[in-house]
């Protein structure tokens, strides 16, 4: 029997308004930055109008991207709460494209904005095998000290041993697919944002936190299944890890003059999970130029495509599915995203130059045999 598994950062699927932009320009939408706003009350009214006008197109495209995965189970990042998830599934997926995901799970993590990891799944696979929820375990409470993961590099960032490891959560969900056990670990690691520190860019400066998160995920799995037996069990780690092992660097001045070059990274937090064959990044079964799930740009001097979104399979599950090559759904990308030659897609209706869009991230989906 087969299962279609996907992951997708849906970006700020919220059922509340974020007014923090009034005091923090970094959180302010660029539309409101055009206007002189004289009071917080005025800002709140304008922000509500802007968010409502923007959200409908965005969520239609998000729903189309999810529908295109054909997933039986989809792991999601940046979901506000279960009410937002239910409203989105009913109002967009079910009503708009007929994709009914009856089972939905999330819990509060550590994110300061309240955006959490979540899971939606059907009652059965496309082949009629029942999908059964067994239990859900949050690991949001774990601290660096508890797992012995505090390092001098973390101390230099102001991280204390008593502080929580995960910026959101590592949500462990046990399922049965046609009676066969499968465990999913839903993650969303620390972002690469933030000001440079000590001559390092944002990615390098925040790397110790992501390494701790990756080591903690591995620790949780090894504690659950046993260090010597973990790779033989059926599990997958799904989510946005905010890091990459390769980039496709973009140079040139326009669509007819773009040049794309693959560059390997010396260090990545993924190393903590992938070394010694603990698990496999199945997206690496695709050609190097065709593994990207996000376009990053800070202007012409800093542009690249990279993989931030992952489905990591345990060694056993990867070996059982040696021929499985994942799909990356890029139709919801805005037109500004440069595509290497041969990767062009038909964009979803109403996608804009920069927005609306399904997300800056692309869903990743893979079909697995559960034997």
From TrEMBL:
Q: Where is the Endonuclease/exonuclease/phosphatase domain?
A: 55-361
Task: Extract the GO molecular function terms from the UniProt entry.
Answer: catalytic activity
User: Sorted alphabetically, which SUPFAM superfamilies does this protein's record hold?
Assistant: DNase I-like
Instruction: Give the source's domain of life in one word.
Output: Bacteria
InterPro entries, sorted: Endo/exonu/phosph_ase_sf (IPR036691), Endo/exonuclease/phosphatase (IPR005135)
Q: Which residues form a coiled coil?
A: none
PANTHER family linked to this entry: ENDONUCLEASE/EXONUCLEASE/PHOSPHATASE FAMILY PROTEIN (AFU_ORTHOLOGUE AFUA_3G09210), ENDONUCLEASE_EXONUCLEASE_PHOSPHATASE FAMILY PROTEIN (AFU_ORTHOLOGUE AFUA_3G09210)
State the protein's name. Putative extracellular nuclease
Q: Which organism is it from?
A: Aquamicrobium lusatiense
Q: What is the lineage of its organism?
A: Bacteria, Pseudomonadati, Pseudomonadota, Alphaproteobacteria, Hyphomicrobiales
């Amino acid at each position: 029997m087969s299962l279609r598994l996907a992951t997708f950062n849906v970006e700020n699927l919220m059922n509340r308004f974020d007014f923090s932009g009034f005091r923090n320009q970094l959180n302010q939408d660029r539309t409101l930055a055009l206007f002189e706003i004289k009071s917080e009350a005025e800002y709140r009214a304008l922000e509500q109008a802007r968010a409502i006008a923007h959200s409908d197109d965005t969520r239609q495209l998000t729903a189309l991207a999810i529908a295109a995965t054909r997933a039986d189970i989809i792991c999601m990042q940046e979901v506000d709460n279960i009410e937002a998830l239910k409203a989105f599934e009913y109002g967009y997926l079910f009503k708009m494209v007929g994709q009914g995901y009856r089972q939905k799970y999330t819990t509060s993590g550590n994110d300061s904005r309240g955006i959490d990891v979540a899971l939606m799944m059907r009652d059965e696979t496309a082949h009629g095998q029942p999908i059964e929820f067994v239990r859900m375990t949050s690991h949001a409470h774990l601290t660096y000290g508890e797992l012995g993961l505090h390092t001098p590099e973390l101390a230099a960032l102001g991280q204390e041993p008593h502080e929580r490891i995960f910026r959101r959560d590592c949500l462990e969900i046990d399922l049965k697919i046609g009676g066969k056990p499968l465990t999913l670990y839903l993650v969303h690691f620390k972002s690469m944002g933030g000001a440079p520190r000590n001559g390092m860019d944002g990615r390098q400066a925040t790397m110790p936190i992501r390494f701790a998160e990756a080591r903690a995920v591995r620790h949780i799995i090894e504690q659950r299944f046993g260090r010597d037996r973990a790779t033989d069990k059926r599990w997958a780690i799904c989510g946005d890890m905010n890091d990459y092992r390769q980039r496709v660097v973009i140079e040139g001045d326009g669509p007819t003059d773009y040049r794309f070059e693959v560059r390997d990274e010396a260090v990545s937090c993924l190393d903590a999970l992938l070394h010694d064959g603990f698990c496999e990044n199945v997206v690496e079964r695709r050609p190097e130029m065709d593994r990207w799930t996000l376009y990053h740009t800070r202007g012409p001097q800093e542009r690249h495509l990279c993989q931030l979104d992952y489905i990591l399979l345990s060694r056993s599950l990867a070996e059982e599915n040696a021929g499985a090559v994942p799909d990356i759904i890029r139709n919801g990308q805005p037109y500004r995203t440069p595509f290497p030659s041969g990767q062009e897609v038909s964009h979803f209706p109403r996608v804009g130059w920069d927005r609306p869009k399904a997300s800056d991230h692309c869903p990743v989906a893979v079909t697995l045999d559960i034997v």
